[in-house]
Amino acid sequence: MNLGLLLLAFTPSWTSVSMLLGYVTYLVIVGSILPGKIVPGVTLSDGTRLHYRCNGLLLLVLLIFLLGIGGWMDLLSPTAIADRGLELLSATLVFSVLVTNLLYMVGCRSRDQSSSFKPHTTGNLIEDWWFGIQLNPQFMGLDLKFYFVRAGMLGWLLINLSVLVKCIQESNLSQSMILYQLFCVIYIMDYFVHEEYMTSTWDIIAERLGFMLVFGDIVWIPFTFSIQGWWLLRNKVELTTAAIIANCLVFFMGYLIFRGANKQKHVFKKNPKALIWGRPPKVIGGKLLASGYWGIARHSNYLGDLLVALSFSLPCGISSPVPYFYPTYLFILLIWRERRDETRCAQKYKDIWAEYKKTVPWRILPYVY
Q1: Residue 343: what pLDDT?
Q2: The whole model's pTM is what?
Q3: What is the DSSP annotation of 141-152?
Q4: pLDDT tens-digit profile of 161-218?
């Protein structure tokens, strides 16, 4: 593909823009209407706490049903996303920049002193734009951080399903594609089944909403997490039985660590006396969990996330580094995030954090300091 054709492919069309706007509008309106479990968030520094409507699974099922009906009635093409991938990528990138600019302007003008809306500025325009100004900006009663993560995860599923249909239409379905799709569906569906766990993650409770999170949620998650699917659409890989078994073991081991660690942390924040692995939890300074996965290594959930990411790429074989972009990027990101978390926790918990580090000396992976 020459440069002219590549630029043309990246140029958003009215169709791709309409698809994107229809998608975000559906999530806002239908997400506000559908019933769902109301989950209280963590208590903020001013004593307030947000409440989240966790209806993502119902939102997902309804959208897939509506798209299926639309495809069956020839009202839309099930391969529309796969056919316009680059257009949608550029349209979503532009959208993320516009949203970030709006968040920045609204944040600068805010005079609200609550924890959620109080503007936090450093005086460095680029840093404030990148990391954000407000902790929990809202739109139509929706917490935007929670909304954007939902949009990214569901968008990732829609891209994968469109690529799968295109692969079937081109008679190019392989064991590798089936394995990749299966792992992703399990992982994404699990996210929405346990959507309430997101309310106690670092992104939601501590990160302000700026370009880093907006871009990461609605551009990076759906379009880079699906690279393996795009690659398998054009490259057929035959796997041995041993390779399939090994790949499944990597995925399920990573999944158990990731889900188990996040569940333990979420349950502990709601009930610090809840049993972990059948025993009372060990707590440092009355605040920091040092039992279960969190007693094995600090941020052991990151290890699970990395193993799951690797399992998404292993079905692609080892003939190209392209499918391994996601786990490579995630490794770098999580190491950077772990360092930032360590610094923040040291500042927040002080002597308690020092004691916790002595109790749990390893970082992410056991025996790694």
Answers
A1: 86
A2: 0.87
A3: TEEHHHHHHHHH
A4: 999 999 999 888 899 999 999 999 999 999 999 898 888 787 888 888 999 999 999 9
Query: Rounded to whole angstroms, how far apart are CA atoms 93 and 28?
Result: 19
Give phi and psi for 240, each to the nearest 5. Answer: -80, 165
Beta bridge partners of 143: 138
Collapsing DSSP to helix, strand or coil, 97 comes out as helix
CB 137 within 8 A of CB 109: no
Alpha-carbon distance of 356 to 324, in angstroms, equals 34
**Which residue(s) pair with 38 in the sheet?**
53
DSSP code of residue 363: B
Question: Which secondary-structure segment (H or E) carries 232?
Answer: helix 227-234
- Mark 126-152 as b/e (b = at least 16 C-beta within 10 Å): eebbbbbbbbbbeeeebbbbbbbbbbb
Distance CA 338, CA 355 (A): 18
pLDDT for 288 equals 84
Q: Give residue for tokens 């700026």.
A: 210
- Any idea what DSSP says for residue 218? I
Beta bridge partners of 40: 51
User: Tens digit of pLDDT for each residue in 171-181?
Assistant: 888 999 999 99
